[in-house]
């Protein structure tokens, strides 16, 4: 039977509960902004084919870690999915269609592939918004199995996790309680928001302000009032010559975050909107 999926409507996502946001579908919706002719059914069918190739083998395995090891072996060794260390900051590594097509990605996008395939096989894999490097986790009888999608799904122990987290916590290693909190499953909304932030940062580095504005706008569709979405869309609008739209976003940002660290820079940008002339296209 042909696998078909329907992409959600951007305007409907904000009303959904965090884990009711469809993960794969929303990731493909983000990709469609860059690839308007993208056919989501192609990638839904790809997930189904990968899962079907493993279904009997995985069903015969009792141990959850062993089931996950079988999935990882197929994805990373047999199919060749891998972290793109040479072109890490290539935006293609953040678009799910490109990740399936090229079998290259960054931690977050490779995690989405793992999650989609594992869940299709009734293996309840979760994403983890670990600081600096997205991870995946699987609940097991004696705790949590944490894996690194960028490194072929390699499992990571508690001490390594603490070392990885330390630079992002002011140099202070987390205790067991804080580490457990950091390893909490990320909601679907949080995962796709992180994907948009990654893309937005890449496009800002390239000064592709139209795409920065687009990513920020999508953040605001998912989570209205998102502060960095308001700020970055406003800044991008200003760069693009749309001072009125920029003024609205930047003023709202300052009203919602009057003590933010960047208020001086945002106020300066807001003043600049009053001096700018709207660009005619």
UniProtKB/TrEMBL annotation:
Q: Where is the Protein SirB1 N-terminal domain?
A: 44-197
Gene3D superfamilies, per database record: Tetratricopeptide repeat domain
What is the top-level taxon of the source organism?
Answer: Bacteria
- Signal sequence segment: none
Query: What family does this belong to?
Result: Belongs to the UPF0162 family.
Q: What is this protein called?
A: SirB1 family protein
